[in-house]
Design a protein that fits this description.
Helix content is 21%, strand content 29%. It has 190 residues and is of the alpha+beta class. The chain has two domains: 1-32; 37-181, Umud Fragment, subunit A (Ribbon), CATH 2.10.109. Strands 1, 2, 3, 4, 9, 10, 11 and 12 form an eight-stranded antiparallel beta sheet that branches. The protein has a four-stranded antiparallel beta sheet with strand order 7-6-5-8, with no helix packed on it. The N and C termini lie far apart (71 Å).
């Protein structure tokens, strides 16, 4: 009888050790490698909708540089407890101009086939129509794909690279939209 109780206790302890080990692996992955996020708001429509579930890689930019067109999750410059999903438009050191709804970087117009409306500007925002904006080193300029309904760098200027949580690389909900997130810009524009 004593041996049976001892066997049961050993069995339960083995299960608990396995659960703790697996839980530790998930915590490490969540904190240092990838994070699940839920899209909230209309700022990235028509490409991402409220309720979409995405995976964000926290390590991509440790292995490669940020590219124009990457979709990223970042901490809000106004409230770091809030995270935004946006698209990188301008890179460190570049000069960006938005004139009459057209976006140019270093004198080249960006062909943004992923947006459904021209790029408007906000009164009192960081960017003025036709005026160059030099992106500081260690910062990026981000915008939502739904330009009329996005709070982004047009309003609050470029954001520090260290405010980026990571690159969005996979959508796992809704079922009809599951798949890898690809950068829509041709290599020549990145």
């Amino acid at each position: 009888m004593v041996k049976t109780i001892r066997d049961i206790i050993d069995f339960v302890m083995d299960i608990l050790q396995t659960i703790v080990f697996i839980g530790s692996i998930f915590i490490v992955i969540y904190l240092f490698i990838l994070t699940p996020n839920q899209v909230k708001g209309a700022s990235m429509e028509p490409n991402f909708h409220t309720g979409d579930y995405i995976l964000t890689s926290r390590i991509t930019y440790k292995f490669r540089k940020i590219e124009r067109g990457d979709v990223v999750v970042l901490k809000s410059p106004k409230n770091p407890d809030i995270e935004y999903i946006k698209r990188v438009i301008g890179l460190p050191g570049e000069t960006l101009v938005i004139k009459d709804g057209i976006v140019s970087v270093d004198g080249k117009v960006i062909q943004e086939n992923y947006i459904s409306d021209t790029t408007n500007l906000w009164e009192g925002g960081c960017i003025k129509n036709g005026e160059p904006y030099k992106i500081p080193e260690d910062e990026v300029f981000v915008m939502g794909d739904n330009r009329p309904r996005s709070s982004d760098s047009r309003e609050f200027c470029s954001v520090p690279i260290n405010s980026l949580v990571g690159q969005v690389f996979y959508r796992y909900f809704p079922p009809g939209q599951v798949g890898w997130i690809k950068n829509p810009l041709p290599e020549t524009l990145r």
